[in-house]
């Protein structure tokens, strides 16, 4: 009988989600169990190339007898694309989905030449809010616990609160080898959401894969110098033993996660039959190890003296919040309350923004220009049509290359943006929030997606004419 992901999570039965690549030409054999753990398929969305085949199309080529998890990535997608995807998914027997914002689109368009062409990302929080309304899906989200500055780690956890509030049923961590970070996530969940399920992403880490990830700076993945050097040394001295160690480490990480309380693992780069057999053999060796024994064997295999061996090899310092940032926040907050939230402002606004006048297209264009010129220099406004500054500590979401309003993607590296040209705006925001005691808003305020059709309109008119 088929085990479903939903049953496993509800019954707290440890399970393995085996990732299959959408870029493979013909379907591969699929296992229903792996080392006696229930196994299911998971299909990622455009991980290798922007034009990878759609996971849902590929899923239908595999038998219904294996439960599946379909990823939906928000890169270059609008809320309407998600609704179409959900309609298609409803017409299948698949009920598990993983909603992620996604890493940088390889063909990302910054919109330098034509602003309207800027690549947009449907962020996960907004996607969860929309999918939850259908009430039939088990919704997973991504979470990156491998963050090493206070601000970027705070920002990840603040967003996780939002994802859970929006309706996420489980999380899958980013791939990583720092088990201390994986343990911290479990501590956080036990404290705040004891019934929430988490799965850890693991992979048999070969030297080749590690080198690829370092060379290509794969977003959000940390391969420390120690990890890379250990793989290099052992491969040079004995490639056969090196391969045995690769699967032994993967098995140990799976068992450590099980001991930590993870509901299962998301197993990457292990979809071939021979790879799965090697992993099963390794799991057999350690299956009766206690947590302490697994951790000791893990350290021995990595030749690690300290937990720091898995962390980035740089000096990590906390940036201070500047007086200018605090003053800007205060000034903007006072102006926002005065011009948009006060009773007087609303009364005047309803009168001034009468639809009969402002619905004329020339009037709308004038209004749009006034709004853009007054806010662009100040905060980086791009006329999104639904101003969210009041919910984002007056740090404009449009200054994030992905346009994310609810919190960071997983791609930061020591506070730097995945696009490498700026500091992540969500690290700046998390730092400021802590300083001015405003973290609650970053934890609880769910900001819906802005449809492409709303963009490049004035938010002022809708602010005063919509019933809020
Ligand atoms: S600013 Fe932050 S959330 Fe936006 S793309 Fe860069 S790293 Fe991701």
Which descriptors apply to this entry?
single chain, alpha/beta, 8-stranded parallel beta barrel, FAD-linked_oxidoreductase-like, 45% helix, TIM Barrel, binds iron/sulfur cluster, 9 strands, 468 residues, 18 helices
| Uncertain stretches | none
Please give the CATH class of the largest domain. Alpha Beta
Radius of gyration: 24 Å
The small-molecule ligands in this entry are: iron/sulfur cluster
Helix/strand layout:
Layout: H1 5-11, E1 15-20, E2 33-34, E3 37-43, H2 55-59, E4 68-73, H3 79-90, E5 96-100, H4 124-132, E6 138-143, H5 150-166, E7 170-175, H6 179-192, E8 197-202, H7 207-215, H8 225-237, H9 239-260, E9 264-267, H10 273-286, H11 291-302, H12 323-341, H13 343-352, H14 355-358, H15 361-379, H16 425-435, H17 439-444, H18 459-465
Parallel strand pairs: 1-3, 1-9, 3-4, 4-5, 5-6, 6-7, 7-8, 8-9
Antiparallel strand pairs: 2-3
Helix pairs in contact: 3-4, 4-5, 5-16, 6-9, 8-9, 9-10, 9-11, 12-13
Bound molecules: iron/sulfur cluster.
């Amino acid at each position: 009988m088929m085990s479903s992901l939903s049953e496993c999570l509800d019954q707290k039965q440890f399970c393995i989600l085996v990732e299959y690549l959408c870029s493979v030409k013909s379907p591969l054999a699929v296992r229903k169990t792996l080392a006696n753990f229930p196994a299911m398929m998971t299909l990622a969305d455009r991980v290798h190339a922007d034009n990878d085949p759609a996971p849902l199309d590929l899923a239908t080529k595999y038998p219904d007898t294996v439960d599946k998890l379909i990823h939906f990535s928000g890169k270059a997608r609008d809320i309407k694309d998600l609704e179409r995807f959900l309609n298609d998914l409803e017409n299948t027997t698949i009920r598990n989905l993983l909603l992620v914002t996604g890493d940088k689109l390889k063909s990302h368009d910054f919109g330098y030449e034509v602003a309207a062409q800027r690549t947009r990302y449907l962020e996960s929080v907004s996607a969860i809010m929309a999918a939850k309304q259908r009430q039939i899906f088990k919704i997973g989200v991504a979470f990156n616990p491998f963050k090493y500055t206070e601000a970027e780690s705070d920002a990840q956890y603040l967003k996780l609160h939002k994802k859970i509030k929006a309706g996420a049923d489980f999380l899958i961590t980013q791939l990583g080898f720092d088990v201390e970070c994986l343990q911290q996530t479990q501590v956080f969940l036990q404290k705040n959401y004891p019934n929430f399920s988490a799965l850890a992403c693991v992979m048999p880490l070969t030297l080749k894969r590690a080198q690829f990830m370092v060379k290509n700076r794969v977003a959000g993945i940390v391969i420390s110098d120690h990890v890379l050097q250990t793989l290099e040394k052992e491969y040079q001295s004995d490639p056969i033993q090196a391969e045995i160690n690769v699967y032994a480490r993967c098995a140990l990480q799976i068992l450590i996660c099980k001991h930590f309380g993870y509901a299962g693992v998301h197993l990457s780069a292990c979809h071939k039959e021979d790879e799965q057999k090697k992993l099963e053999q390794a799991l057999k060796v350690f299956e009766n190890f206690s947590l302490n024994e697994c951790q000791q064997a893990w350290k021995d295999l990595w030749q690690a003296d300290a937990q720091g061996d898995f962390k980035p090899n740089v000096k990590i310092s906390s940036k201070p919040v500047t007086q200018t940032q605090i003053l800007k926040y205060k000034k903007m907050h006072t102006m926002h309350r005065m011009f948009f939230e006060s009773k007087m402002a609303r009364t005047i606004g309803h009168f001034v923004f009468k639809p009969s006048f402002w619905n004329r297209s020339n009037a709308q264009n004038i209004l749009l220009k006034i709004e853009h010129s007054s806010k662009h220099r100040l905060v980086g406004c791009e006329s999104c049509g639904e101003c969210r500054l009041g919910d984002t500590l007056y740090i404009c979401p449009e200054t994030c290359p992905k346009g994310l309003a609810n919190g960071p993607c997983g791609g930061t590296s020591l506070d730097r943006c995945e696009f490498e040209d700026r500091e992540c705006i969500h690290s700046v925001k998390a730092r400021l929030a802590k300083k001015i005691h405003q973290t609650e808003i970053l934890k609880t305020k769910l900001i819906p997606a802005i449809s492409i059709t709303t963009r490049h309109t004035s938010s002022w008119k809708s602010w005063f004419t919509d019933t809020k």
